[in-house]
């Protein structure tokens, strides 16, 4: 699609949108139940009140504060209604242009919204996820057009490197370095993969991004393909994400029909196609080498690295593999320039990070904050503090590969380095707030059961070790453990970390080790003998 055609779509769509005095945005994310019913009820109310020419009902992506959902946003007044039900529809439509409905109104100055810094989530909840004209009117695909018209692949590689962006899939590998390695790797064709497997329990960042702004992921992927010289891309997504898959199919088709994907994209010399590959829901298939085997049609088993996928990936060819959120960062980064990302966050952790904030805080949902923000600000300000009558015990970050940060260390800034120092990780962005009612032994037992079930069984330390560690943890849960069990637990964790073949086994002990470091007393309390009490004597 050439610029003139894009400009025409933007002008026509703006004219269409401007006809209406009020736009009513209904969240269509999975976190807001009955949203289809609510939207239909609002549409009916518009008809019964004969307001078809004045009011437009729109389906949008997640607005973030899922715990207050279903959410409805009224534009241009920027009024947000919470806990909306289909029965409220007539009243909402009747109130447009008049006084807001106080019982449904969310305070405009809620810290949940004002303390965030939205970058990849900036259009989430603001556009119809499936509408190309909506994305274009919001400035979408402008970064791609700028790239194709004015930048050469080395310019983009330099920008990504200068920005200091690190992969958002968990390990935090420098994105610019990975892209540069693929760009200069020998072999063709070159492939590109978007890792949308998202297997961490409690994580829904990637799903939400794909459901809310799927065009933004495509745009990031197309720009990456141009930068590294890839001609074929794959989005590997688990089959348990049907809404995201349905929306992706739709936007890929629209992008193809409008020459944003395919041959000679926007009249340039770039040819790039994207296909979707469905995963069956194995956590290990998120690991890059296992994922690659899965796309090749084989069983998703990891293999040792090197060689890294950047040099030998899909079918032995150079392959760029990045996470959904990493690709979503690319269009704003190219639009605003590398300094913009570099100026946000900390020295080594730049930009913003999306988290799925869950657990015992008042406000849960999807948030985006600058790197370096303190955990306390996330829990107390954005999360609104703990639910009535409860006190904070810890914040778990990084899912089954992460760890627990105790309440005493809540002033820790959220960065790759500071979380690692505490034996946890940023991971892909799961953040669970834990209160005094939860047992840390129970929590780590849950994560270890998850890793045991998801272990692919290829290497012995992980296959046998996760089961043994889990058995030991059950002994602690049942107050039947001994000091020898505690020693064995630590020894096994160490063994697993150092001898497992892939990241699943290497990181499975992290929650246990971090709980032992900060909440050792809880393990000792589960020891049946006198020894535990002797152990803690000064
Ligand atoms: C067991 C395991 C599961 C993983 N799951 C995911 C996942 O679901 N999504 C993801 O992007 N990365 C996942 N990773 C990390 C990927 O292997 C890879 O590092 C990442 O996709 C690279 O993208 P990035 O550089 O943009 O972070 C996983 C790693 C391991 C060891
Ligand atoms: S560490 Fe676990 S998941 Fe990874 S290869 Fe070994 S058995 Fe499979
Ligand atoms: S899904 Fe509706 S606000 Fe998150």
Question: How does this model look, in words?
Answer:
This protein has helices at 3-18, 35-48, 89-95, 111-114, 132-137, 142-150, 153-163, 175-184, 205-212, 214-228, 242-257, 288-295, 324-336, 338-342, 375-382, 416-421, 440-454, 460-477, 483-499, 503-507, 510-518, 520-524, 531-535, and strands spanning 22-27, 55-60, 72-75, 79-81, 191-196, 232-238, 273-279, 319-323, 352-359, 365-370, 392-397, 403-406, 430-435. With 538 residues, the protein is α/β, with parallel strands linked by helices. The chain is globular and about 75 Å long.
Tell me, rounded to a whole number, the average pLDDT: 95
Taken as a percent bin, the fraction of beta residues is 5-15%
Stated plainly, the CATH topology of the largest domain is called Rossmann fold
- Class by helix and strand content? alpha/beta
Percent range for helical residues?
40-55%
Instruction: Please write the CATH class name of the largest domain.
Output: Alpha Beta
Organism: Desulfobulbus oligotrophicus
Family: Belongs to the complex I 51 kDa subunit family.
Keywords: 4Fe-4S, Iron, Iron-sulfur, Metal-binding
GO molecular function: 4 iron, 4 sulfur cluster binding; FMN binding; metal ion binding; NADH dehydrogenase (ubiquinone) activity
């Amino acid at each position: 699609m050439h610029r003139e055609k894009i400009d025409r779509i933007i002008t026509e769509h703006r004219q269409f949108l401007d006809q209406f005095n009020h736009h009513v945005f209904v969240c269509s994310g999975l976190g807001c139940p009955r949203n289809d019913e609510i939207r239909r009820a609002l549409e009916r109310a518009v008809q019964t009140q004969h307001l078809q020419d004045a009011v437009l009902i729109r389906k949008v992506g997640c607005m973030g504060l899922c715990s207050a959902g279903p959410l409805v946003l009224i534009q241009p007044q920027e009024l947000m209604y919470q806990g909306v039900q289909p029965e409220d529809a007539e009243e909402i439509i009747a109130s447009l242009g008049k006084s807001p409905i106080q019982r449904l109104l969310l305070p405009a100055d809620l810290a949940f919204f004002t303390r965030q810094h939205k970058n990849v989530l900036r259009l989430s909840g603001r556009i119809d996820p499936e509408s190309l004209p909506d994305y274009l009117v919001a400035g979408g695909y402008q970064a791609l057009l700028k790239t194709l018209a004015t930048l050469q692949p080395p310019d983009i590689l330099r920008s990504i490197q200068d920005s200091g962006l690190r992969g958002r899939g968990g390990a935090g590998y420098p994105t610019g370095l990975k892209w540069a390695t693929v760009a200069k790797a020998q072999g063709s064709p070159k492939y590109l993969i978007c890792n949308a497997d998202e297997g961490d329990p409690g994580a829904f960042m990637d799903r939400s991004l794909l459901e809310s702004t799927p065009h933004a992921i495509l745009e990031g992927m197309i720009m990456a393909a141009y930068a590294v010289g890839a001609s074929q891309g794959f989005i590997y997504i688990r089959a348990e994400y049907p809404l995201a898959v349905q929306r992706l199919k739709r936007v890929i088709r629209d992008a193809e029909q409008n020459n944003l994907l395919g041959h000679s994209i926007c009249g340039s010399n770039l040819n790039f196609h994207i296909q979707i590959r469905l995963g069956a829901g194995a956590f290990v298939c998120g690991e890059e080498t296992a994922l690659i085997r899965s796309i090749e049609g084989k069983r998703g088993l990891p293999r040792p690295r090197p060689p890294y996928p950047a040099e030998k990936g899909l079918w032995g060819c150079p392959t760029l593999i990045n996470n959904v959120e990493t690709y979503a960062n690319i269009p704003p980064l190219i639009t605003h320039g590398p300094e913009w990302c570099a100026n946000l966050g900390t020295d080594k952790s730049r930009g913003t990070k999306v988290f799925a904030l869950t657990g015992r805080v008042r406000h849960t949902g999807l948030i985006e904050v600058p790197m370096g923000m303190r955990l306390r600000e996330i829990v107390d300000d954005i999360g609104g503090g703990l639910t009535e009558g409860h006190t904070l015990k810890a914040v778990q970050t990084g899912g089954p590969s992460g760890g627990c940060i105790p309440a005493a260390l809540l002033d820790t800034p959220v960065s790759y380095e500071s979380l690692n120092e505490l034996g946890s990780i940023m991971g892909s962005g799961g953040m669970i707030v834990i209160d005094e009612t939860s047992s840390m032994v129970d929590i780590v037992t849950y994560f270890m059961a998850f890793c045991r079930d998801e272990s692919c069984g290829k290497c012995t330390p992980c296959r046998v070790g996760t089961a043994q560690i889990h058995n030991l943890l059950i002994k602690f849960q049942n107050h039947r453990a001994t000091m020898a069990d505690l020693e064995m637990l630590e020894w096994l964790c160490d063994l697993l970390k150092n001898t497992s073949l892939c990241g699943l086994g290497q990181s499975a002990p992290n929650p246990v080790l971090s709980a032992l470091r900060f909440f050792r007393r809880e393990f000792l309390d589960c020891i049946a003998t006198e020894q535990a009490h002797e152990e803690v004597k000064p």
